[in-house]
Amino acid sequence: MESVLSKYENQITIFADYLEEFPDTDELVWILGKQHLLKTEKSKLLSDISARLWFTYRRKFSPIGGTGPSSDAGWGCMLRCGQMMLAQALICRHLGRDWNWEKQKEQPKEYQRILQCFLDRKDCCYSIHQMAQMGVGEGKSIGEWFGPNTVAQVLKKLALFDEWNSLAVYVSMDNTVVIEDIKKMCRTLSLSADTPAERPLESLTASTQSDELIFLDPHTTQTFVDTEENGTVDDQTFHCLQPPQRMNILNLDPSVALGFFCKEEKDFDSWCSLVQKEILKENLRMFELVQKHPSHWPPFVPPAKPEVTTTGAEFIDSTEQLEEFDLEEDFEILSI
Q1: Catalytic site residue 77?
Q2: CA–CA dist 179, 173 (Å, integer)
Q3: From the centroid of its chain, how far is CA 320?
Q4: Which of 161, 197, 240, 248 has the fewest CB atoms nearer than 10 Å to its CB?
Q5: Which pLDDT tens digit goes with each residue over 134-163?
Q6: Buried-state track 104-134, b at ≥16 Cβ within 10 A, e below 16
Q7: Of 72, 81, 125, 219, which residue is the catalytic one?
């Protein structure tokens, strides 16, 4: 077992070619909806990337379900990408997109509360334990690899419990012709977006203006980190402090889930309008927006809250908060 974990722990070194310096150009780079001028703002760009919460394989956490795996190496990469998406949405909601993280600097209480929600413990509301067990309802056994669509469904369920008064839009796609549309969405929609993809390498959290993507890779195994005696978390391993990796977007597996954070209802309305104007005008569409829940779909039933009392309860309220975004009266998003 140790040899298997060692393999995944060292996997990130295989992709050393992606760690080269950014080219010295006048190109604009978009990181989760925020624009950077590469030639003059490289340090800000790198700081912005390292500020994102980075979730990777972990080992030596308590067995999932009491008797299940104590490491997610080899199967939890997509769940980690989902955690990164959800964490970014929470950061935007509670700290703002312009908030920045600095190494060994005291962070706001909200940041610590958010981070603690994702610790690898069964009593943390967005932990690998909660997500893996939520996946059972989607037909996935604990320890089984998830695809982007399954992760999107799990995130949707988890997000229903959060008292954001905000909306995270997850669009899952599986179509071999969506690369150009993904590029267009990344460049056109100036909202925070994350993109977990089917292939393990392509776990993406940012995009550049050219045909390259910048990404945070979950495929390295780190040891479980728990809350310290003072109630805080040593967060050094939850931020990627090495140079970010890059890849050509043409190498992106077209089976992806895109995430967009809408802080207010007007943001969601703007998102729908922009998508219809710029993305859905093509004949071959990667998803659709419709006014009402399709009659041939089963009725929407909000999932039950987790039975375990979880850390992060301050983020959890009731599904009544969804009335702020009544999708039945607005738009239903259909993935293809």
Answers
A1: yes
A2: 11
A3: 24
A4: 248
A5: 999 889 999 999 988 898 888 887 766 555
A6: eeebeebbbebbbbbbbbbbbbbbbbbbbbb
A7: 219
User: Given the DSSP bridges, would you call strands 203-208 and 212-215 parallel, antiparallel or unpaired?
Assistant: antiparallel
The Cα 203–Cα 195 span in angstroms is 7
Nearest residue to 64 (alpha-carbon basis) of 224, 198, 236: 224
Q: Is 217 considered catalytic here?
A: yes
Catalytic residue among 48, 120, 162, 217: 217
Instruction: Give the whole-angstrom CA distance, residue 238 versus residue 246.
Output: 19
The answer on pLDDT for 115 being more than 70 is: yes
Closest CA to 124 of 334, 317, 277, 314: 314
Amino acid, single-letter form, for residue 138: E
Residues β-bridged to residue 258: 171
With residue 215 as reference, give the H or E element that holds it.
Answer: strand 212-215
Distance CA 303, CA 5 (A): 34
Q: What is the pLDDT of residues 27-76, one digit of tens each?
A: 888 888 788 888 888 888 889 999 999 999 999 999 999 999 999 999 99
β-sheet bridge partners, residue 206:
214
CA dihedral sign of residues 136, 138, 144, 147: negative
Which residues, listed in sequence order, are joined to residue 31 by a DSSP beta bridge?
34
Q: Which residues contact 124 (CB under 8 A, 6 or more apart)?
A: 116, 117, 118, 130, 310, 311, 312
The residue from 77, 81, 92, 124 that is catalytic is 77
Statement: residue 176 has pLDDT above 70: no
d(CA 119, CA 123): 9
Closest CA to 76 of 56, 49, 52: 56
Reference 206, options 318, 88, 64; nearest CA is 88
Decide: 84 and 20 in contact? Cβ < 8 Å. no
